[in-house]
């Protein structure tokens, strides 16, 4: 069997390749470690969609090489199929099928029979999506609406609690997308995933912070009340700007308890434009729905006092170089990059279009909410505060 890659990777090298890929290393780093070209690494990975192939193993129920050698010796000694079966404690029909499948010109070769059996065993197995057209159609339709595989899996379990045939793991969906040899889900559906990656891989554990300017009279996140920290009560938000080309920006606001998202069109990153846009958006909310807003150290909120006076919203600021302190907002911004890739000119998007994108996020079930939607959770919050 030909090896994947050039000039070819041994089994040990492939195992090391997959270990490094799972650890989050780049193609170049893996190539340098193995002394191979990055193209060779990519060839191996892309053939499996970046998903580590399952380690092959023999079932204890199948005939072993030792048993096949015993069959060969028994035939050479003139023993019957039944006599060989008794000696091996196997069914006579098992021995008969084995001999009929591998005997040629009255000769049975144990090594050849064992190799043939190993080759036959690696034929592709049909996954549930392949054998269940209704399930396949449901999964494809949800992907079209930009649902993630994990959201689809959770929704299926809630929608079809009794019908196990309509249950599916999110990893099976990913495999059907990234391993196109399965021929189950169309490759075009991959564009609906949050990430535009062509291969599946683990997440990197590190995130680089960005330097931020000084905010006068900023109240530190460390002084934020405990009930905000543990999401015990609704009405506490996190915000940030996502940036595009030509100095274009969009403000993102997310409610910590419900994960409800609002996108705000801003005319510039300067504090006057940013604060004006936020005041305009927040004033559209029902009274009391936003009690506090946590921002990073970006100077677009230098006029935070004017914002607080106009909206009656308390402002808190993260520590320098600590975007992880607004984890809910950072995660939301990553989701939004599906719709606003880095390098995109964001100035051309109207507020109605931004509202449409926010609606997509707010009407998708979230695992962290027990697979209910942020909109439903947010409505509960509004009813509570009202």
Describe, in plain words, how this protein is organized in 3D.
Helix content is 43%, strand content 8%. With 386 residues, the protein is of the alpha/beta class. It folds into four domains: 37 residues; 57 residues, no CATH class; 57 residues; 165 residues, Nucleotidyltransferase, domain 5 (2-Layer Sandwich). It has a five-stranded mixed sheet with strand order 3-2-1-4-5. β2 and β3 form a beta hairpin. α2 packs across α3, α4 packs antiparallel against α7 and α5 crosses α6. It is elongated and about 100 Å long.
Brief characterization of the structure:
It contains 17 helices and 5 strands. It has helices spanning 11-22, 27-34, 38-47, 65-76, 81-88, 92-102, 110-121, 128-131, 133-144, 149-159, 170-178, 226-229, 271-282, 304-311, 327-336, 351-362, 374-385; strands at residues 236-244, 248-255, 261-265, 292-295, 314-317. It is elongated and about 100 Å long.
- Helix percent band: 40-55%
Taken together, the total number of domains comes to 4
CATH architecture label name of the largest domain:
2-Layer Sandwich
**CA-based gyration radius:** 29 Å
The number of helices is 17
Number of DSSP strand runs: 5
Q: How large is the share of residues in beta strands? A: 5-15%
């Amino acid at each position: 069997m030909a090896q994947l890659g050039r000039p070819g990777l041994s089994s040990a090298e492939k195992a090391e390749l997959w270990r490094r890929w799972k650890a989050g290393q780049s193609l170049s780093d893996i190539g340098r470690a193995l002394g191979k070209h990055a193209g060779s690494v990519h060839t191996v990975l892309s053939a499996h969609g970046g998903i580590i192939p399952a380690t092959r193993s023999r079932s204890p129920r199948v005939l072993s090489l030792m048993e096949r050698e015993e069959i060969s010796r028994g035939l050479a000694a003139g023993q019957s199929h039944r006599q060989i079966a008794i000696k091996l404690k196997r069914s006579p029909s098992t021995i008969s099928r084995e001999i009929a499948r591998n005997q040629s010109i009255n000769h049975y070769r144990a090594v050849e029979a064992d190799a043939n059996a190993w080759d036959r065993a690696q034929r592709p197995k049909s996954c549930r999506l392949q054998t269940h057209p209704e399930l396949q159609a449901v999964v494809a339709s949800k992907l079209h609406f930009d649902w993630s595989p994990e959201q689809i899996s959770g929704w299926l379990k809630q929608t079809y609690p009794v019908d196990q045939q309509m249950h599916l793991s999110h990893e099976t969906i990913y495999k059907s997308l990234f391993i196109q040899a399965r021929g189950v889900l169309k490759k075009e559906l991959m564009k609906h995933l949050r990430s535009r990656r062509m291969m599946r891989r683990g997440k990197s554990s590190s995130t680089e912070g960005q330097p931020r300017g000084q905010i006068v009279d900023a109240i530190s996140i460390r002084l934020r009340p405990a009930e905000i920290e543990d999401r015990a009560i609704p009405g506490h938000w996190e915000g940030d700007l996502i940036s595009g080309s030509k100095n274009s920006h969009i403000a993102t606001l997310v409610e910590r308890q419900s994960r409800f998202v609002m996108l705000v069109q801003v005319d510039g990153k300067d504090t006057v434009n940013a604060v004006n846009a936020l005041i305009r958006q927040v004033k559209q909310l029902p009274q009391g729905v936003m009690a506090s807003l946590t921002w990073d150290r970006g100077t677009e909120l230098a006029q935070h006092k004017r914002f607080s006076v106009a909206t009656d919203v308390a402002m808190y600021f993260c520590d320098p170089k600590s975007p992880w302190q607004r984890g809910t907002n950072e995660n939301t911004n990553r989701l939004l990059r599906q719709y606003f890739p880095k390098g995109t000119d964001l100035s051309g998007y109207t507020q109605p279009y931004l509202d449409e994108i926010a609606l997509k996020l707010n009407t998708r079930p979230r695992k962290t909410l027990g697979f209910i939607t942020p909109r439903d959770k947010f409505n509960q919050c509004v009813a509570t505060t009202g």
